[in-house]
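Figure caption, in words: inputs first, then the predicted bound structure.
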Amino acid sequence: MDLARQHGTAAASMTSGRVTGKVAIITGGASGIGRITAETLAREGARVVIADINVEGGQAVAEEIRGKGGEALAIPVDVGEEKEIAAMVERTVETFGALHVLHNNAAITAPDHQRRDANLLELDTEIWDETMRIDLRGPMLACKHAIPRMIESGGGSIINTTSNSALAGDLTLNAYSAAKGGLNTLTLSVATAFGKEGIRCNAVSPAHIESPSLAAVVPPEVVEMLRAQCLTPRLGAPQDVANLVLYLASDEASFITGQILRCDGGALSHLAHVAQLRDSDRTTNRTDEV
Ligand SMILES: NC(=O)c1ccc[n+]([C@@H]2O[C@H](COP(=O)([O-])OP(=O)(O)OC[C@H]3O[C@@H](n4cnc5c(N)ncnc54)[C@H](O)[C@@H]3O)[C@@H](O)[C@H]2O)c1
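Bound structure (nicotinamide-adenine-dinucleotide present):
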């Protein structure tokens, strides 16, 4: 890796885009956050691989990027299957000659699966196992196969999409939150073990983001409750997460590693009662005489 690129200096950014010259794999790139991230990285100069179990959706995103003058390849993959992950990495390097960025974004968001991911007493072990297979084993396999190729490419950046569900308790989604908690720890392990070889590893932790999966799973009245928990006027959008992934993928973030960065409009930055007090126009101070 040349010094300008390694240290994120001005010389490296004189080319047109913020990730020009980089090759990036985005798992789950056919929809939602992954799709917008693939489009964003491509717009900023990366050659992108859209790796998704949704074959048609992945191809549509790749075609759209190519139609706008970008370079993109769709690779069908089930991230829980090691052979498919190994083939995804090899095909990426065969096609584009290197690998610099891995965005581990795929997770099971299907409404029928999420509805069955309840509290532990109501949770089928098949749901637990399948959640771990896709949401935790998937990113682990992708790291395992991508890291050697990234080192050969002169270094790289891994960005794991985790969730605020891993940072505080909830009434349901007990398997999902445990898988994302594991992914947070995996992020720290990868950053620690491979940092000296030029591999950075960070996690982006969204709260509720207005993506297709949110609309399919969360009732509209609950979406309003979630909006009230944000310190910003609005909920997050996929582009908010994509912007953070772009930064972490770029050499601007060359000294940032081992971080779990929340992208949540401050949803976890306040005491639990704030949203209710705001709605009731009260504070924690008594105003009457005692
Ligand atoms: N939307 C939110 O509110 C929110 C909040 C926190 C975290 N996240 C995380 O963000 C990521 C993206 O979520 P999204 O909301 O964009 O969902 P989405 O449903 O729009 O996208 C998920 C993508 O992953 C793909 N996928 C599912 N299983 C796969 C598998 N086995 N192999 C390969 N691809 C697979 C799907 O086909 C889909 O294209 C997930 O990791 C999710 O846990 C989302």
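The chain is about 45% helix and 15% strand.
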